Amino acid sequence: MKKNFILLTFLFLLAGCSSTDEVTKFNVVTADKSVSLSAAEGSPQCNVHLELSYATEDNGHKAEIINNIIEQRLLDMQDLNMQVAADSFANEYTAQYRTLLPLYNQDRGDGKKVDWYNYHYILKTDVEQGYEGTSVYHAYLDYYEGGAHGVSQHLTINFEQSTGRQLMLADLFVPGYEHQLSAILQKALCAYAGVDNLNELKEQGYLYSMDMFPSENFIRGKDVMTFIYNPYEIAPYEKGCIELKVSYTEIDGILSNSL
């Protein structure tokens, strides 16, 4: 009887470890495409380079869930093989670029505007193990579509490893968390900017025309949560990407116990 009890206890602990430590497996597909805007020598070009991490078939049904979320978030597609989706995006993006030819023909005599037509779209991704049972998907996007400067963004998706579903702030925090979390993040922004209060933040260009808010673009890390704000979200373009780290101790009072 005692041996049976020990065996059952071991099996229970083993089952518990497998459910919480289940690691989602990922692989990478790439897509590259370059096109010239016109047939003329020295024509502007559009260059697309994609490196997309995707959940492999080893993950079972949750792979489909994860990959659909990735495709919808990054490529505005769904229900496609990831390689097909990447190739389709590159083809559609460069085809849309070619529609600029009439505008380019009007501007080609203006040396200041010619460089505006050299487009690029670069998307690279990776995945890390986050807080217990969480895979954190990172997407680093850099693109230029004319104008004064390009755009760089850091986008994240937090996946529950056991199910493949995307974790949102409402899954991690108690109802009504927004006000208190915003105050914690504003304090973190003050520390990031080296100031003491909201007025000083605004003097430096932060939160000039908006209130602080909890970003759904976050990392559920092993030791801290990181909230990411891309250019223009809470500060001017020149401030770049802002990452605010908050310890779990600071937010313990508003974290949900459901996960």
Core attributes:
5-stranded mixed β-sheet; disordered N terminus; alpha+beta; 259 residues
What report would you give on this structure?
- The chain is an alpha+beta fold.
- It contains 9 helices and 8 strands.
- It has helices spanning 2-20, 61-75, 82-98, 101-107, 111-114, 169-172, 178-193, 198-203, 248-251; strands at 26-36, 45-55, 119-129, 134-144, 151-160, 218-220, 224-229, 242-247.
- It has a 5-stranded mixed sheet, covered by helices on one side. A 3-stranded antiparallel sheet has the order 6-7-8.
- The longest helix is centred in the N-terminal third of the chain and has 19 residues, at 2-20.
- The radius of gyration is 23 Å and the shape is flat.
- It starts with a helix and ends in an 8-residue tail after the last helix.
- Residues 1-20 have low confidence and may be disordered.
Query: What distance separates the N and C termini?
Result: 35 Å
Overall structural class, as computed from helix and strand content, comes to: alpha+beta
Helical stretch tally = 9
Helical content (DSSP H or I, runs of 4+): 25-40%
